[in-house]
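User: I'll paste a sequence; please echo it back and then give the predicted structure.

Assistant: Echoing your sequence first, then the prediction.
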Amino acid sequence: MTPSLEHLQHLLKKLPGLGFRSAERVALHLLLEKPETLPALVDALQQAATAVKRCEKCGHLAEEQLCEICQNEKRDQSVVCVVEQVPDVVALERSGAYQGSYHVLHGKLSPLQGVGPEHLNLAGLEARMRQGEVRELILALSNDVEGEATCHYLTDELIPADREITVSRIGFGLPSGGGVLYADSVTLKSALDGRRSYS
């Protein structure tokens, strides 16, 4: 194996879902079977790296100040589904079961790993609630200890006392210890439809 190929394989192996063998297959495929796709792939990666940023309102991916979901007037902006990561939004959107808005925390509370409230995207959510924009908060966080702790923090610390905000938590259909990202569309629809009060 050449040093350049080995370096490429090493970088590919760092991507989620790619182990040593998968990274080797991808590298060899790009170099030997589809070398004509390399310039377009490199260009697309560079373009995305400079153009894609966080939505200023919800934290989702955007190429302008606001993402397409926050700009969509047909979406119910008063219903906010709180998720841990951007792939969770993608999974929920794929289900087609939800027509509200989102807020991406970019993580969850985990004191053992040194992740506190200051590390999460909370300021924008708090501002949205204080401005009276939010009437319902759907907590679509992982069904584990950290997810539960994050839900408690959101309801105890962030919801203004002078605002009537309904809080619900998805859970029906999601396995214990599982997250939104790996659930199929039917399971996600059941989880959203079967959400329960969280207060």
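The helical segments are 3-13, 20-33, 38-51, 68-71, 86-95, 123-130, 145-158, 185-193. The longest strand covers residues 76-83.
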